[in-house]
Design a protein that fits this description.
Elements: H1 3-12, H2 25-29, H3 31-34, E1 41-44, H4 52-58, E2 62-67, H5 70-79, E3 84-88, E4 96-100, E5 105-109, H6 117-120, E6 123-129, H7 140-150, E7 151-164, H8 180-188, E8 191-200, H9 206-210, E9 216-225
The chain binds S-adenosylmethionine.
């Protein structure tokens, strides 16, 4: 199974519990750290149909999402009631670009690992919720390489990750645990990193207790490209 096939099946079957019907609270809380330039060019990797993109555009920023499943892209434009245009992406076979009328929101339909600055230029900021934790841990270096390719000097990343003991968990799968060692290994050399929030994610969360976890942290991290 290709890495996108499983996600596509999940979308078709309505397994999208990651989707929120409100704008992310950490994005709201830390917008002034992430969005220093006004307007900023903001990348939302593995964007799904998150409302955060609409909110960012309404704040005047230019938003580029990257998503591998067509259904997610269609549902985003339909649910936000945004007319869009569809086009091919020069240099990226099979990919499509969907953009709204004022071109403030663009979504590339492609595998994120094929994305680069040659396709959509460079970004001031990256908002990563449900992206680093969604990819297979073996692809973390490739994932960081794409982020590094598209981030401008001094560019900023706000991300949310989870930490838990993967051996406790059944069934396994996303959200994957991203320990501090991996943040240091993949981001530590090129970025300054700062944990802004460190929450207990098991409190009141039956789902992950039932999957065997005895602890789970949710961390909001801010990183700046040195
Ligand atoms: C956990 S969801 C998070 C979605 C969104 N960021 C949010 O906060 O609601 C991960 C999304 O990434 C998409 N995806 C997974 N692997 C991908 C890949 N390699 N390239 C592009 N999209 C991918 C999935 O279809 C899914 O919509």
């Amino acid at each position: 199974m290709s890495r996108l096939e499983g996600w596509s099946e999940g979308w078709a079957a309505g397994r999208t519990s990651f989707h929120r019907t409100f704008v992310d609270k950490s994005l709201l809380e830390f917008q002034s750290k992430l969005l220093v330039k006004k307007p900023s060019r903001v990348l939302v990797p593995l964007c799904g149909k998150t409302l955060d993109m609409k909110w960012l555009a309404d704040e005047g920023h230019e938003v580029v999402g990257v998503e591998g499943v067509l259904q997610a892209v269609m549902e985003f434009f339909q649910e936000q009631e945004l007319p869009y245009k569809e086009s091919d992406v020069p240099g990226l076979k099979g990919a499509k670009l969907f953009e709204n009328e004022d071109k403030k929101i663009k979504i590339y339909l492609c595998d994120f690992f094929q994305f680069s600055k040659d396709i959509a230029g460079q970004f001031d900021a990256i908002w990563d919720r449900g992206a680093l934790v969604a990819i297979d841990p073996s692809l973390r270096k490739q994932y960081t390489d794409v982020l590094l390719s598209v981030l401008s000097p001094g560019g900023r990343i706000l991300n949310e990750v989870f930490e838990y003991n993967p051996e406790e968990r059944e069934p396994k799968g996303p959200p994957e645990s991203v320990p501090e060692e991996d943040i240091q290994k993949f981001f530590g050399e090129k970025f300054t990193t700062e944990v802004l929030h460190d929450y207990d994610h098991l409190e009141g969360n039956v789902k992950y207790r039932e999957r065997g976890l005895t602890w789970m942290r949710q961390k909001i991290r801010f990183m700046v490209l040195k």
